[in-house]
Amino acid sequence: MADQYEFLTKDNISNYLSSKQVFANLIDANNLVEFKEVGDGNLNLVFIMKDSSGKGIVLKQALPYVRLVGPDWPMTPSRARIEAETTIIHSKFAKDLVPEIYDYDPDRFIIAMEDLSDHVVWRGALNLGLRFDGVAGPLGKYVAKTAFGTSIFGLGQENHKLEVSRAINPGLCLITEDLVFTEPYFESGRNSVLPSNEKDAQDLANDKEMVNEIGLLKYKFMTAAESLIHGDLHTGSAMIKCEDKKVAVSVKAIDSEFSFYGPIGFDLGALVANYTIAAARACALGNLDQMHWALSLPEQTWVEFEKEFRNLWPSRVDKRVFTDQLLEELIKTWRADTLGYAGAKMARRIVGLAKTSDIETLEPNVREGAARAVLQVARKTTKERNQAKSWANLAKEAAEIMQKTATK
Which CATH superfamily is 2-113 part of? Predict the structure, then answer.
């Protein structure tokens, strides 16, 4: 049974490292001087080890349930295989933007990967009010490189279909389908908001135009096998290294266990949503400069995505009917998808299960206004996603909503 494998602990991890030859030159398993369990996410165990010479390694083990909830919510640990395979595949196209994978243990669902302890989680830095430039753009480039490389344009017809079948991930897709596209609008018992935001949540659920757009977006999420998407790309799944404390010298996209063949705009939308949430936090704390800076990030990500995809377009496998005019149509569609998915992701992070620390760590008196702002921006962004608004106008509209709804 998949749930009967041994979990990693501080007591057995040295023996585990010693038992596999692949680790022999990566770390001295008999001379570990540092051990940290840093799996503060919703699903997995994550350990960082270092030996006396400074060599480090990360072991990530999937549990047979959702860690956030416990054994009452079973979850297939084979998601670790998905993450390992996706990271390796994405590294073929964007090697510098993902961690190196050293090994995958299919019996205990353990991924061994590059130690990124000299990086920080971008969300944590944003929560502290820090500005690190050179992150939003590379993340857009990461999406473009992996999207093109794993699409029918990069792979060709046969390889694309084979990859679609290999990457099927029904268990984790169901989580997204429920938590992002369904439960914020149809109560399941897992939603929660502050009492002062209950009307905001009800207004969201009662917004028929929003629900219709969410239905279209969910349908596309479930049926559009455009590329091997990350599936959970946000500021909490971006690790960054900034030597001068201003500009990132390294950006890594991690935690791709929700990966599958889906719509290209979904990853971009998830990033836009989380930038907006970071901006709402800044506004709630009275840091308007930080708010405006955070609201400039969506344009940076999109511009780099579009630029990189256009650069790759001439190398597409089949040029016969996949014309330059088609690319123009696709770019337009992906932009609308990006905005739609951004709104969907904003709403679920306020109303649904698994919220963000950006909002949840605010004191209730200011959290109320921040949450209200995110929900209002979400509804406006999704419902107006097909309008030809500039990124500057979108940022301006979001800023106006945030300042109007701010509470003290």
Answer: Phosphorylase Kinase; domain 1 (3.30.200.20)
